[in-house]
Amino acid sequence: MFNLLRRIDIEARKTPEILMTRMFFTEVYARHNRRRQEHLASLHLPINGLSVLELGAGIGEHTGFFLDRGCHVTVTDVRPENIQVFEMRYPEVPSYVLDVETADEDAAVPHDIVFAYGLLYHLSDPERALSLFSAWSQNFLLLETCVSFGDDFEIHRVAEDPVNASQASSGMGCRPTRPWLLRALKAHFPYVYVPVTQPAHPEFPTDWSSPAGRPPDLISRAIFIASRQELDNPWLTDQLPVRQGI
Fold first, then answer.
1. How many domains does the chain have?
2. Does any domain span residue 244?
């Protein structure tokens, strides 16, 4: 059961709150999601038919990816207005309001897969969040997040606009380095992998040797696959690659 989650009553919500989600319908946002889903499909992970807990789902731009693969999906987001729109789009999919910043392990039941694309960097305490992701994941954690360049083990917290429906509701996010993420994930999962490729999108670097040449306002994203069992998959590596393909 979802002890700390509450179902949203669509009839009790108001149209102006829905309008806050309009940024999710832009072509820029849609293009970004298409590239991420194309890349996830290219990894050939054994996810068909599994149960999925989609965290920070927004209005459900990734939900169809799993539904098309016969997965049993449950969706959460911190903002009621996002869940309201989601319920209009996917009335058959269970959806709940959940604030990962304040939730505990009993807030959700474990699923085969925890899908957290674009959530971790909107949280102020990524170490605590990864502990929750692990508690809710029986097989895989699929993680995509903004990161900082560097070989150190740092979190690099950053301020975000809590009014923006796609930003941190608490006003504080983070940009951990890839080494920090790898180490943190290994504390919870026996096997942690990085794809040998990146989505074909400017926000996903393929050369991690130096941030030089990247526009200073362009964020950098990385993907991690954490697993309870060893994966024999040529598209994954257990090392942090300096260079990745597309």
1. 1
2. no
Q: What is the DSSP string of 5-28?
A: -B---GGGS-HHHHHTTGGGGSHH
DSSP label at residue 188: T
CB atoms within 10 A of CB 59: 27
Least confident of 65-79, 84-98, 204-218: 204-218
For residue 1, being part of any structural domain is answered with no
Q: Which of 203, 204, 201, 185 is nearest to 193 (CA)?
A: 185
Residue 85: which CATH number? 3.40.50.150
Model confidence, pTM: 0.90
Give the C-alpha separation, 41 to 76, whole Å: 22
Per-residue pLDDT band for 165 (boundaries 50, 70, 90) equals low
CA distance 40 to 34: 10
The answer to whether residue 103 is domain-embedded is yes
pLDDT tens for each residue of 185-203: 999 999 999 999 999 999 9
DSSP state for residue 148 in the 8-state scheme: B
DSSP state of 32: H
Residue 29: predicted pLDDT: 84
**Domain extent at residue 143:** 10-237
pLDDT tens string 51-86: 999 999 999 999 999 999 999 999 999 999 999 999
Residue 4 located in a structural domain: no
Return the residue matching tokens 């994966």. 231
The helix/strand/coil state of 198 is coil
Enumerate residues 6+ apart whose C-beta is below 8 A from 48.
69, 70, 71
